[in-house]
Amino acid sequence: MKKKVFVLFIALLVSAALFAAGQNEQEKNVGDATEITVMVPPWAEPSSELLESFTAETGIGVVMNIVGWDDIRNKVAIAAVGETAPADVIEIDWSWTGEFGAANWFEPIELSSEEKEDTLTLGSFTYGNDVIGLPYANDFRLGYYNTADFMKAGYDKAPTQWDEMIEACQKIKAKGIKEYPITFTLSATEAATTSLLWMTLSKYGAFFNDGFSVNKEHVLSALEFVNDLVKKYELIDPANQNMKDIEIYGKLTADATSFMVGPTYFLGRINNPEFSKIVGNARATMVPGTKSIQSASFALPEGVGVSKFSKKKEAALKFVKWYTSPEIQIALYKENGNIPCHASALKKLINEGLIKDGAVMMKQANYIINPFPGGIPLWYAEMSNVIYNSINKMVQDVLTPEDAFNAINAKVEELRK
């Protein structure tokens, strides 16, 4: 009898040991899977309170990797060579969708028909039949101005045409109100490319002809105009050639300039004392146009997706769905000013009066133009590199506007064949 009890005791010990080992291994696996890394630019970083709420809800810890926007694409491409993930969840810009989709670097995301219907700009993150990212920032370009500066120059509101806007800014400069009344990206960064695109669209017309050739009349005129704003009229600070876009846009809220065309998320910043020194004197306005072009803007939404090489895809997808949900988008608008990409969230903010100048934003949305005939080309990144470097060299007097146009045109001709 004692022998049977002893054998039973040993069996129970072995079972307990195996169970404990299994539990330890399971806990280890859960622990490994419940900490993910997220790589986004500074304006997309959620507060520690929001991240803690996600962890409390899901058990998934989040390590934020905040990286300059221009560096993210390079990190993704370099890591992909070794089939590794620079992070589990990664920023996807509208302009990277074609390249990332063709390279198969991101996991497809399944959505219900209801989710698709409520998600604005989803097409900007769709490659073929696959959604490879979900948008978190409903971005397009909008005008912003310092009402006090314009009032001092004799204007009770911002001019609606470029010629009148330049005249107003010249008066602001002449009166010593601001040395450089306009801020505009001149650095060798992606924002210089998008700035030239909206400037061309709003003042001269199409950037590309049908077939993707560059419209010489329009683009050369835009380059000459930007060059004159820097050198002839001295309305744009030449130091912008060495500054990133977030610094350049920040000049308005720092009370260092009077007018800019910038991202929609500044609607949530220009009158927020946490970000702005011109609270009460900042308003949104339409991007100026001409007698023949009332206004023009184009969409530059941003999203997040799951790396194909992530070892924690399920946890990463949970974060993506949470981060881009209507409730969290509303919270991110309140924290960072990012305009929601869910129609339901955007409607709620506007109806509750939480987006000041929301009517201006909605009116500007009627003038969003797709500058790319047939969609964003797969070679956009290569073209953009030449555009922003040409602008940067132009304002440094390394290239003339004609030289800058020739460089841009030659690259596009090479790429579109």
Write a short abstract of this structure.
This protein is an alpha/beta fold and 417 residues long. The chain has helices at residues 2-33, 48-58, 69-81, 97-103, 113-118, 147-152, 162-174, 190-203, 216-231, 245-253, 313-323, 326-336, 343-351, 358-365, 380-395, 401-416; strands spanning 35-40, 61-66, 89-93, 126-127, 130-131, 134-137, 141-146, 182-183, 259-263, 282-285, 302-306.
Fold and architecture overview:
By secondary structure, the chain is of the alpha/beta class. It has two domains: 172 residues, Periplasmic binding protein-like II (D-Maltodextrin-Binding Protein, domain 2, 3-Layer(aba) Sandwich); 194 residues, D-Maltodextrin-Binding Protein, domain 2. It is 47% helix and 11% strand. Strands 2-1-3-11-6 form a five-stranded mixed β-sheet, sandwiched between helices. Strands 8-9-7-10 form a four-stranded mixed β-sheet. It has a two-stranded antiparallel ribbon with strand order 4-5. Strand 4 and strand 5 form a beta hairpin. Helix 9 packs antiparallel against helix 16 and helix 15 runs antiparallel to helix 16. The chain is globular. The protein starts with a helix and ends with a helix. The N terminus is likely disordered.
